[in-house]
TrEMBL record:
<dbReference type="InterPro" id="IPR009057">
    <property type="entry name" value="Homeodomain-like_sf"/>
</dbReference>
<protein>
    <recommendedName>
        <fullName>HTH psq-type domain-containing protein</fullName>
    </recommendedName>
</protein>
């Protein structure tokens, strides 16, 4: 989505062509280009279950368990 947005804004590629080239929904891309959706604050994908600190603790725990056998 970000690459398609940049192609439209920086390279002047039409929205329809960019949506087909980058395989993203045309209306979503058009909304971002027309600033109906702020492209900088919009989060794509799911919200992480753990924050970075929690994830690091889990990884460390798994490493310790693997070392114990």
């Amino acid at each position: 989505m970000t690459a398609a947005y940049r192609s439209v804004k920086e390279d002047g590629m039409p929205v329809l062509k960019a949506s087909r080239v980058y395989r993203v929904p045309e209306t979503t891309l058009r909304d971002r280009v027309l600033l109906k959706i702020d492209p900088d604050t919009c989060v794509m994908g799911k919200v992480p279950m753990f924050d970075q600190f929690q994830e690091a603790k889990i990884v460390e725990h798994f490493k310790n368990m693997a070392a114990l056998g």
